[in-house]
Input
Amino acid sequence: MGFVTPRTLASDYDVIVVGSGAAGGQTAYTLALEGVRVLMLEAGRRYDVAESPMFRTYGEAPLRGTGTPDKPFGFYDATIDGGWTVPGEPYHSASRAPEEQFMWWRARMLGGRTNHWGRIALRNGPYDFKPRTRDGLGFDWPIGYDDLAPWYDKVEMLIGVYGSNEGLENTPDSPEGCLLPAPAARVGERLIRQRAATLGVPVVPIHRAVLTRKLDHQRIPALLHPGNERAQRLVAADMQARSACFWATPCGRGCSIRATYQSPAVHLPPALASGNLDIVCDAMAYEVTLDARGKASGVRFVDKTTGRHEAVTARAVVLAASACESVRILLNSKSAAFPDGLANSSGKVGRYIMDTVGSDLEGQIPLLEDLPPHNEDGAGGSHLYAPWWLYGRQGRDWGKGGLGFARGYHIELGTGRRMPSADTGAHLEWLTQGSYGKRFKEDVRRYYGSFVSFSGRGEMIPNEHSYCEIDPHARDQWGIPVLRFHWRWSAHETRQAAHMQKTFADIVDTMGGKVVGKPELDGAKAIAPGGSIIHEVGGALMGADPKTSVTNGWCQTWDVSNLFVTDGAPFPSNADKNPTLTIMALAWRAADHIAQRLRRKEI
Ligand SMILES: Cc1cc2nc3c(=O)[nH]c(=O)nc-3n(C[C@H](O)[C@H](O)[C@H](O)COP(=O)(O)OP(=O)(O)OC[C@H]3O[C@@H](n4cnc5c(N)ncnc54)[C@H](O)[C@@H]3O)c2cc1C
Ligand code: SF4
Output
């Protein structure tokens, strides 16, 4: 088994997994190591992390590596055949109003967006699973924190996450032995920590999926796969092949030494080594087929290399193509039994899609000017962050005496003297009054590293106006109907964005700095466009009632017992915590459940 083509497929797969990113990678890993025969269908091309251009300098790239419309995150960004637009694969917004647009970032490569994600790996806290109980808004999850905690532990130990336990409210500590040590904070981060404390904002080590040291291959595999010696051996061998980070190269280009989590660096190698995983790349899935009993029988897909339509069968199907794409496949899988799309008897497929609330502000800090040259490279992204600190003013009291909005946000920091790029030294006129020549060079050195940035990442409450559906007028290059998005923020989100701006400006002020531009206190203007934070979840919500939800707490669709959705689509809420660690924990838990039910011949 291994990489196969539609011509060399086997005929006896237990499970088809659609997608190879965080969700598909985790699902296939767990199933394959549990002895389940898996076929993975991936729409993008085959990719090996060894391809990473991690050691190139910006000067070696066209336009000195700066972002372009087809490479918005820069020339060397790891994304292949993807981005805000994918040629031949359109999507649309139903409204023309600027504030009702939805942006959809897609990757089309083995490993999906895990090849260039930010690697921030935060656990949801207990409140995040029961938000409606707490403030009467949105939906509760049918599971609680304690149900998922053992799988958070496993994911952290497998992929390698650095961080610390701080005992903060709704910001769970990990059990001893799960986290790797956090790296030292950078100078600017230390200054933010010191000054933010005077405002009551805690700044602590962030949790990020980067190896500060090699994983303990003698201790961890037995904890991940108790009683499964073969899996332990395979995982131990693979852990030894991963190196620790050397803190010098931009992680968004991918990491050829496998020091950061990417699905093709962590999930797929041991799954392939088990002999239980086959992967077809360039396979664009578009329909789940049903048998006469109403069970999922397989998947139809387009072989992008030939344009031919193919079909494959298995005992169970898992959709893990990213939240909105899995919704698209469900809605396109129409039959007499499901005229409105598969597993859609509730009418909720596509409903309640969510992104993260985002707003940014930058400051210039005189205390950080003219620092002596020193190396601040570290991990791609900040080493510290500020978890939400105002839970005490929330809950049912968000309106009266509270903040005027429910839920909260965390703050991601940007500081440091990173590898200079094409725009290092640009936009300094407001500080230099337009210097040039020798004086300009002195000014660039003086201000280099004196800027700090703050990115708020907050919770959006699901609403009736944010959903996706099949566009009746548009198809992609293979004739597959595409999605049309409806999007609206509520006042909870826009007020939260205004609060972010005020907080960031206050922190810059306590640092003795100046805000670049001015804080935008009109939340509707301060908030980033829907989808642009690339944390889209929802569309196939899990719940306790088949009439109002699409899956149960095992990511199993209510309507079709051998059909599962293990990406972000089943999220009933989108906590401020970045979603990917939770996607993986849910996927591992669901895959354990599938393996158990297959063994008992229940599916
Ligand atoms: C720049 C950036 C930074 C980010 N930073 C963070 C962060 O710091 N922390 C965090 O938690 N999250 C972050 N994210 C979000 C994170 O990448 C996603 O939450 C995560 O990758 C979702 O996993 P997934 O498996 O659902 O989707 P993906 O990783 O997108 O994988 C889906 C896979 O399915 C394939 N596919 C799609 N459609 C089909 C089809 N029809 N047939 C077959 N295959 C298909 C795709 O090609 C892709 O390989 C970031 C994302 C980006 C882009
Ligand atoms: S900083 Fe570390 S994790 Fe990131 S690409 Fe470089 S070696 Fe890999």
Remarks:
- The chain has a mean pLDDT of 96.
- Residues 54, 210, 245-249, 251, 255, 257, 259-260, 379-380 surround iron/sulfur cluster (ligand 2) (CB under 6 Å).
